[in-house]
Amino acid sequence: MAILIIFISIAFLFPARILSFLRFNRELSSEILVIESWIPDYALNNVVDIINSKDYNQIIIIGNPYTKELTLSENGYLVFDLSQQVIKFSDDSLHQIKINMFGSSVKRTNAHFKILVNGYQIGDGFTKNRPTDYYFSCTIKPIKEISVLFDNDFIYKSHDRNLYISSLFVDNTEIHLYNNNVIYNLVQPSYQIKSRKFQKTPADELCNKLIDFGVPDSIMVSLTSYNKYKSKTYTNALDVLKYLQDNHPYTKSINIYTMDIHSRRSWLSYKRAFGEKYQIGVINFTNNEFGKDNWWKSWIGIKYVSAEVFALVLAFLFL
């Protein structure tokens, strides 16, 4: 506890120095690049440039399972195809639909949604910041599909307005969110529709995004850590190590691509997991959500840096 208090005190007495300490960057000459799957979309161009400019033989994307929610991060509509599902509908003439949703607010406006059944709108509204049940009724029979339209995506200074769907019930029957009958139709600026299915894991999702950027799928592999041990980052490191031992036994160095303020902790976690026989390099990208020269002047900067200092101390003491 004393060490933790000292580190946090240093963070606020010498704010510029503590951020420089967190933002660890040391690129090695390696054939393996490990990418943490939670990186934001604004970092994709940078990591693609790095991949294209280096001779990496293997790109490992490592992450953790999805949370329960489906994330709509772009304008479009989520279609639940019910035509092939066995659902015990109510005998009443009125169907009851319950959707649990929430959204992120940008410039004081939350995510806006419309609910459609078989293409007919039955309701709309703005989400709240916390998960909330929304109830709708309809007399349409049979229900072949339910669509949730997200139509006010907006990004301002790296703050992204998103819509999150936690659950869907039709006449008290739960519709599973992650299955092959759920399609996300993205509305492109040219008003063309691009359809995609939700991937099983965030690592798979990032793989698909990098393929869209032209990265060959033949050099990529996605890994997911399902059993947390000590910390998520440390568990990721153990799973990457296991993969390398099984598939690249002669490899003794890697580079990790991660966010700048997380880079020191990623390096330490991988160093502790891999041991002295491996060299661990780090390539970081800048977090755009707060200024690096005055992070202590914004609440989000204080939140991010304080959390990383706290987590780094725990990693130093217990990994």
Structural overview:
By secondary structure, this protein is α+β, with helices and mostly antiparallel strands. It folds into two domains: 2-65 and 201-318, HUPs (Rossmann fold, 3-Layer(aba) Sandwich); 70-197, Jelly Rolls (Sandwich). The protein has helices at 2-13, 15-22, 44-53, 202-212, 232-247, 263-274, 299-318, and strands spanning 32-36, 58-63, 70-72, 76-81, 95-103, 112-117, 120-126, 132-138, 145-150, 155-156, 159-160, 163-170, 173-174, 182-187, 193-197, 220-224, 253-259, 279-285. The chain has a six-stranded antiparallel β-sheet, with no helix packed on it. A five-stranded parallel β-sheet has the order 16-2-1-17-18, sandwiched between helices. Strand 6 and strand 7 (120-126) form a beta hairpin. The radius of gyration is 22 Å and the shape is globular. The mean pLDDT is 87.
Number of distinct beta strands: 18
Order of helices and strands: HHEHEEEEEEEEEEEEEEHEHEHEH
Total of domains: 2
- Percent of residues in helices comes to 25-40%
Query: CATH class of the largest domain, please?
Result: Alpha Beta
Q: Name the overall outline.
A: globular
Low-pLDDT sequence parts: none
Strand content: 25-35%
CATH superfamily of the largest domain: HUPs
CATH-derived architecture of the largest domain: 3-Layer(aba) Sandwich
**Main beta sheet strand tally, sense and closure:** 6 strands, antiparallel
Task: Tell me the CATH topology of the largest domain.
Answer: Rossmann fold
Question: Which class best fits the helix and strand makeup?
Answer: alpha+beta
Count of individual helical segments: 7
